[in-house]
Specification:
By secondary structure, the chain is of the alpha/beta class. Helices cover 42% and strands 24% of the residues. It is built from 12 helices and 15 strands. The strands form 2 sheets. Strands 7, 8, 9, 10, 11, 12, 13, 14 and 15 form a 9-stranded mixed beta sheet that branches. The protein has a 6-stranded mixed beta sheet with strand order 2-3-1-4-5-6, sandwiched between helices. It is globular. It binds 3,4-dihydroxybenzoic acid (DHB).
């Protein structure tokens, strides 16, 4: 062989790796895979994997590579991981964010690097205002809390105690519930805030018992509902005549079956139930369970699944271009069917617009489910809507 030919072949043999580096789009997926929020990480990771199994790993001629990092839901760790993913791995997307402080800690990096940040879990209203590169596929707490307040007052509940986890989404849930409930004519007897980390609900539940409201309105983050219900029963509140009402974070599909019959009848409001009656959701639940040892998908999982859809469709629109500004522009106003129902991305706020369902916990085929019985269609984040 001529030396020239050998060199040509040698050069060719380098080609595939050079091409693949340019033709790979990386998604840095930062989730709490361990620690108190681990169920959120597990659900979203599983949904992202399911989306790729169903839709392939090539979009607009680009190979899609997901790099999963565990931030243990510590915001300083989230920020460091986001920085490394942008600088070292050159990711085109930052995604995930199990808790609000993690999403907020990453926002300045998204802005500086002009990298799209897809918030798949966290639900504080203000998050989308922290960077023009943030887009959300999860929910806001005001979306679910306002309809809960409306339902409560219409259904004879006049005096409520609120109990929330003491951080962003809890404060949003408390404020949006109380503002609506009071505007309708109801009274808030007490507003209780419980620490996020290792919560002990007992002393707060004693205050609830003493205040004797018609109902207790609760928000705790995904993964904390079972502990809350356990202490609610231990304190005898299930037999006190005080009704329990909640955002669907409390009656989380991930834990609902283990809570026991004490939650049967609990009215709550949320964006997703594994029991949602649509052909698409039936396929989703079945495929998710099959791939994950019969684990039931929860509301966090659809944030991950739809976040992947948003990324895939935006890349199709930009024909594979990864410029952050182009991608965000492509995402604005996008609408599609999710396992939760129809959803879209508000073109003005980059926040999710979705149906909120009023649900009642019921036994279906021997298992506990949130059974939807009323729908409030196309709900925009009420906090941002009120600012306009
Ligand atoms: C947030 C986290 C949750 O687990 C949840 O159910 C709602 C909100 C948050 O950190 O924003």
């Amino acid at each position: 062989m001529l030396r020239r030919e050998i060199l040509a072949i040698a050069a060719l043999s380098f080609l595939p790796s050079v091409v693949s580096a340019q033709d790979t789009v990386k998604i840095g997926l930062i989730l709490p895979m361990t620690g108190q929020q681990a169920s959120t990480g597990k659900q979203i990771d599983a949904a992202v994997k399911l989306y790729q199994a169903q839709n392939g790993t090539t979009v607009a001629g680009k190979k899609i590579e997901v790099i999963l990092k565990d931030d243990t839901s510590v915001p300083d760790v989230t920020k460091r991981l986001a920085q490394e993913l942008v600088v070292n791995d050159k990711v085109a997307f930052l995604a995930g964010f199990g808790l609000t402080p993690s999403a907020l800690a990453t926002a300045p990096i998204a802005t500086q690097a002009k990298v799209v940040q897809v918030v798949m879990a966290a639900g504080t209203s203000s998050i989308t205002e922290a960077s023009p590169f943030i887009v959300r596929t999860s929910f806001t707490l005001a979306q679910s809390s306002v309809p809960m307040a409306e339902w409560a007052f219409k259904n004879g509940i006049k005096k409520v105690v609120t109990l929330v986890s003491d951080f962003g989404p809890g404060i949003d849930a408390e404020k949006s519930f109380s503002d609506k409930f009071k505007a309708d004519g109801g009274a808030i007897a007490e507003a209780l805030r419980v620490p996020l980390r290792n919560p002990d609900f007992s002393p707060f539940l004693q205050k609830v018992a003493d205040a004797k409201p018609d109902a207790l309105f609760v928000f705790v983050p995904s993964g904390a509902g079972a502990q809350f219900i356990k202490q609610f029963v231990e304190r005898g509140l299930d037999k006190s005549g005080i009704r329990l009402i909640a955002t669907g974070d409390v009656t989380d599909d991930d834990q609902l079956n283990g809570m026991g019959d004490v939650v049967v009848g609990v009215i709550n409001t949320h964006n997703y139930s594994a029991n949602h009656d649509s052909a698409f959701n039936k396929i989703y639940v079945e495929a998710f369970k099959k791939a994950n040892g019969n684990l039931r998908p929860n509301f966090m999982s659809v944030g991950g699944y739809d976040g992947m859809h948003l990324i895939y469709e935006a890349l199709k629109k930009t024909k594979g271009a990864t410029d952050g500004e182009k991608l965000i522009a492509a995402m604005k106003g996008m609408a599609w069917e999710s396992p939760r129902g129809p959803i879209s991305i508000d073109a003005d706020t980059r926040d999710i617009v979705q149906n909120i369902y009023v649900r009642k916990v019921e036994k279906v085929g021997g298992e506990l489910y949130n059974v939807e019985f009323a729908t409030i269609p196309n709900v925009k984040d009420p906090v941002k809507a009120a600012k306009k």
